[in-house]
Amino acid sequence: MTQTDRTQWGAILALWFAGLCAAGQFSKTGVIFPELAALWPEAGARLGLVVSVVGGVGVVFGTTVGMAVARFGARRLIVAALFAGAAISGLQAMGLPLGAMIASRVIEGAAHLVIVVAGPVLIAGLARPRDQAAAMTLWSTFFGLAFTITALGGLPFAQAFGPRALWALHGAIMAGAGALLLGVLPREGARPAPVRMTLRAVLADHVAIYADPRVGAPALGFVFYTLIFVAALTLVPGLVAPERREFTASVMPLVSIASSLGLGVQLTRRLGAIRTAEIGFAGGAIAALIWALGGDLVEVGAALGLSVALGLVQGASFAAIPELNAAIADRARAAGAIAQLGNVGTTLGTPALLALTGALGAPALTLFSLPLCLGGIAVHLWLARRRARM
């Protein structure tokens, strides 16, 4: 797919909808986690695998899927992944033993990974350069928004009709998204040069991606964001005053999305994606310091400020993919790296912050977030210096 001279917003919105479906593969179990115990009362700690194993696939195979997208084409793979995800949801809705459910979630994780790697590659090709910041930032909101939608609509639906009914609905929506993309996405032209998929090539590609200050930069900054943000969304509401817990939990993801789509797009257009990410990390560091001051309203304000600041990093990290990489193959590899390190961050961040808060209480948020924000700035400055010498 070559770069367009006219932004195809209809196709971009259809891809964003596909991203919401992919995030739904997480939220359809995470949001209704307490209800899952009734389906498998014998599960014990293994019940957590029903949620987490999807992300584990991304940790291992993120850049590998980026290579596959570069080799086989983003359009055909994302459509196939949506239909595969729909079939898996339909199978889950029929009722599976716990072991089979976990196995199906591994396969679902592969479908999820293809969607989140191919999506930004396609969006970058469908937007003219001036609109890439807005289009990529829109894409970056899919994960948080899907959890919000599932919490508002999916949870009551599952409580009324059962988790399996929610999974059946999700499968039908995914199938609709696949059919929609078949209709609106332009066909791909000539395939890129073949990419070797041997084990040696995969390992070498991992090294090459993260050593490249253009291909690896979006992911190497993004991992600092994911370490903080998911952990903060999960645990910060429990650290503020009890009467402000519900407000904080519901508003934090919304102000982050608003920050990405509003201020983030404008800053990215004017200053570039990497500088916007640096500004976001700087704002996050300030919010972490304000949190340390303590006090009821101060903590709520700092939590919202942290969400606003990290919202800038969220959108800018995806906008950096086409900003730094012109070739489709490089964009696919960069998107795969973001998926891989993003899953590393979401997997490790929450247990790390949980351990710190268990030992230190509320001040742990500052001790956790401040060095990560400063680390994100340092990595981007270092990579920028390397790009300047290229």
Structural account:
With 390 residues, the protein is mainly alpha-helical. It folds into 2 domains: 1-196, MFS general substrate transporter like domains (Growth Hormone, Chain: A, Up-down Bundle); 198-390, Growth Hormone, Chain: A (Up-down Bundle). It contains 15 helices and no strands. Helix 7 (142-161) packs across helix 8.
Number of strands: 0
Report the end-to-end length measured between terminal Cα atoms.
27 Å
- Helical residues, percent: over 70%
Largest sheet, strands/sense/barrel: none
Gross morphology = globular
CATH class of the largest domain: Mainly Alpha
Q: Based on helices, strands and strand pairing, what is the structural class?
A: mainly alpha
Question: Into how many domains do the coordinates divide?
Answer: 2
The name CATH uses for the topology of the largest domain is Growth Hormone, Chain: A
Q: List the helices and strands in order.
A: HHHHHHHHHHHHHHH
CATH architecture of the largest domain: Up-down Bundle
Number of helices: 15
The amount of beta strand, in percent, is under 5%
**How would you name the CATH homologous superfamily of the largest domain?**
MFS general substrate transporter like domains
Radius of gyration based on Cα positions: 20 Å
- Summed over residues and divided by their number, the pLDDT gives a mean of 87
Uncertain segments are none
